[in-house]
Amino acid sequence: MVSxxxxxxxxxxxxxxxxxxxxxxxxxxxxxxxxxxxxxxxxYRTSYSHRGKxxxxxxxxxxxxxxxxxxxxxxxxRDGNLLETTQRFVEEAVAGLTASELQGxxxxxxxxxxxxxxxxxxxxxxxxxGTYVYFSRQSSVGRQQRLQRRTPPTxxxxxxxGVQAESSPELKAAIILFYGLLDEQQRRLYAGLxxxxxxxxxxRKVAEFLGLDPHTVARGRxxxxxxxxxxxxxRKKGAGRRSTEKKRPT
Length: 250
Fold this sequence. Notes:
The protein is mostly helical. It is built from 12 helices and 7 strands. The longest helix has 15 residues, at 184-198.
């Protein structure tokens, strides 16, 4: 006879994620507490997206280097809920984060959790050029984040190219050609780097120039400056010049 715990585990192993009504149906019960007792017994995680309505087994998610995992556009975090996830990303950000920047990384609306964290004095907030930027409350970390946020860009490759492209189509074509040679991750990171150089509004400017979603640019910048980058081998195994056999002196 299949136990209730086995029924829950079997459903989540098959479907990966499930809602409370789906779990109730699998258990043949209408009692919410019964479902949660079974979930607790098998070990579970709750999504931070979709208002936490999805559940999965604790050992199913394969979190990326940012501690995030998604399935069917439902997002889970190693931190659990959205509030804790939001605070961690603010703490780890090189130059603090705006709501739009963090939304681009987490793929959910984050204005409310950021406001809650600020009200509870768990993060600092400062208005810079008309936009609220959230920083760590740890004095040394927050000070460094503010310094990075206010540091003027040292180069404006994309910005300059965008201005010059109208009179120099060849320059724009060259940049687009180079961009097209990159893989998906490299494109995102390159766009994020150039957006950081431009400072406030850089995500939008780079997105318009390269034909990207601003959220993609924001995610690339966040991945790059939190060093959450998946290392990849540029040269495939076996590629390159073949080694020559050393000859013994005769």
